[in-house]
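User: Hey, my collaborator sent me this sequence without any context and asked if I could get a structure. I don't really work with proteins. Can you help?
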Amino acid sequence: FFGITTTGRRFAYIVDISGSMEGSRLERAKEELRKSIRGLPDYAKFLVVFYNSDVVVPPDQETWQTARTSNVRRFIRWLDKLIAEKGTQPFPAFSRGFAEQERPDVIFFMTDGEITSMRPDQVSAMNRGGLSTVINTIAFGDKSSQDLLKQIAQDSGGVYRFVSVRGRP
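Assistant: No problem. I've predicted the 3D structure and written it out in structure-token form, which is a compact way to encode the shape of the chain:
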């Protein structure tokens, strides 16, 4: 996802769809998400949680979906209609991602703006107990939350990446 590769069986994506993502930013995020999910082996499971001021989950994704072709196609059809709006509140999306009985092996967390409603220690607290989830973080076109994202990635053994809006990762 945005050039970050990793291993696992359960992949969660927490993706910003706030108003600042409108237009080409959202289209680029959708493109990367399509590519990443299509690239999963069919035995892998995925969960996608979008956030703005609310948590937005695809209607048929009440729990993990296997990356079989039919599930991926259904998700992509829904994804194509997704719009960007509202504010940037990712903490409830993390809560939703960690609420699954089977924890994610990997989380990809992407934002394009400043996050003031969440601290790294809050994410670390959710990531305790049992096997820790690796959290890879992506600052998409805006480094204003770089310190937060770097700390979340470091605390979980993940990777931080800045991605230019114009260029490729």
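In plain terms: The first helix runs from residue 24 to 38. You can pass these tokens on to your collaborator as they are.
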